[in-house]
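Q: Hi! Curious about what Fe2OG dioxygenase domain-containing protein looks like structurally. Here's the sequence.
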Amino acid sequence: MGEIDPAFIQTPENRPKLCIIEEEGIPVIDLSPLFCSSSSITDPSFEDLVRKIGSACREWGFFQVINHGAPVERRKKMEAEARKFFHQRKEQKNEVRRDDVHVIGYFDSELTRNVRDWKEVFDYTVEEPTLVPASPDPHDHQITHWYNKWPQYPPHLRETLKEYSEKMEELALKLMELIALSLGLAPKRFHGFFKDQTSWMKLNFYPPCPSPHLALGCGPHKDSGALTVLAQDDVSGLEVKRKSDGQWVRVKPRPNAYIINVGAVIQVWSNETYESVEHRVMLNTEKERISYPFFLTPAHYTMVEPLEELVNDQNPAKYKSYNWGKFFVTRKRSNFVNLNVHNIQVYDFKIN
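A: Let's find out. The predicted structure is below.
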């Protein structure tokens, strides 16, 4: 990307401090009780797992999972294919470049809070095609189809990514069952929302940056979907804003673990029992970094609102209902257009 352009420079309050607080306290949760044939929902080890999930969602909004059942070899294969793609010449990557009409594919000018991120991305949707509203206009009821743009090189990228995202979907839905149980709900309470999912996956490539004190790989943000399942290589960079004191803390890479974070949709469904937490990506001058988040998101027609089981006179609904599809396409548009205002947030639907 060359010398740093002013478009990458963060506002003074968002510029990273290069002193690192590496956080050992982010929960690491062993999912092996999920795969124990003798384990049942009333088994003490399973109950302990549900309790740990609930505590992590409540206190951190982030946690790591190990012994998760996702094949390590698929992850390694996917990472190798992704590196081949990003290490191509720019004109080759631009063959699948996305724009404000075709919003899925390769891009190197993504914005977070109207500041350009120091990264390249390639994204794709799990369902092909994916059904979404044709526009953010609340009065426009037309539906459109999003189709993925698949590159010719590497030749096995499409197959590898689709196999990988299938496993991420399985893991995400298992975690949603645990989250449901931790809220006192039936384990499959959330599954119906994902029947016609808009779930998607993104490959993030962060080149070395000459000015890591001015720019960010991804600016501070909260994930807008239901649940994020993130894999990263062995180069650290992800930072989470700790709920207890507002400090930015680094998430230490753990071999073969996945980093899970609660999205805004769960924040609303749970009526703020669980909260989506702000996070960002730091850069360095020497090493590139790759990460691979899978975003579990509901069908476009889903009206997101606090679940009736979690609302009562003592705990009234904290959010108005909103349409996920309209919210989603509005957020996607902000990747391309500097709106000069804050992008739509779940707090816009907060009941005062």
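A: A fun detail: Residues 6-349 form a domain with the Jelly Rolls fold (CATH 2.60.120.330).
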